[in-house]
Design a protein that fits this description.
The chain is an all-alpha fold and about 210 residues long. It has one domain: Hypothetical protein, domain 2 (Endonuclease III, domain 1). The protein is built from twelve helices and no strands. The longest helix has 19 residues, at about 80-100. The chain starts with a helix and ends in a 5-residue tail after the last helix.
């Protein structure tokens, strides 16, 4: 357990006590679709398109019958929509054929689905199946590196591994959400709020980049 990281997470929790998944969903299927759509796109943008998509394709069985061209109009406003439409249909087909229409509850099985990478699999097992996991998205990666819990050159898999060794397993999922909120709303990629950051003394980014401190 790393005391610096635990302290940082405590500070983040005081700032964002209600941190949780912001993708709207009511089932493992909806969560899987939403997370797949969220790659290189904001959760806000995804939440705008999923209501109509889920109304048209309310479950994995209906989605598995679609063609990617059928899906594209519903998600055209988000990035990489053509690739995502194809991945969604292929994901659904495999879930129906291999898993009896049930979204798998293990990372190993989830990774057999097209369009599901390690980050997506971690989100699904953590958020829906309550399995401790840390999904390293762009926010978690940025915060980890700025606060010195990972090296600047670390791959996302290395960041995940290091965080897991420093955080108690029971806190992995909570830490994931706290770091996302901290990165999304405070320690932003552009114009981070360094001048009012309670973790400025811990921040390697401020020291390296000469950012304004409190």
């Amino acid at each position: 357990m790393n005391n610096r990281l635990i302290y940082a997470l405590e500070v983040m929790e005081s700032m964002f006590p209600h941190a949780k998944a912001e993708l709207n969903h009511q089932s493992a299927y909806e969560l899987t679709v939403a997370v797949m759509l969220s790659a290189q796109t904001t959760d806000i943008a995804v939440n705008k398109v999923t209501p109509a998509l889920f109304n048209a394709y309310p479950n994995v069985f209906e989605l598995s019958k679609a063609q990617s061209e059928d899906i594209e109009p519903y998600i055209r406003t988000i990035g990489l929509y053509k690739n995502k439409a194809k991945a969604l249909v292929n994901m659904a087909k495999r879930v129906v054929q291999e898993y009896n229409g049930i979204i798998p509850n293990t990372r190993t099985k989830l990774l057999t689905l097209e369009g599901v990478g390690i980050k997506t699999a971690n989100v699904i097992v953590s958020v829906w199946y309550n399995v401790p996991a840390i999904a390293v998205d762009t926010h978690v990666e940025r915060v980890s590196k700025r606060l010195g819990f990972a090296k600047d050159y670390d791959h996302v898999n290395d960041v995940e591994r290091k965080l897991k060794t420093k955080i108690p397993r029971s806190d992995w999922s909570k830490a994931h959400h706290l770091m996302i909120f901290f990165g999304r709303y405070h320690c932003k990629a552009v114009s981070p709020k360094c001048e009012v950051c309670p973790l400025s003394n811990e921040c390697r980014y401020i020291k390296q980049k000469g950012a304004v401190t409190k």
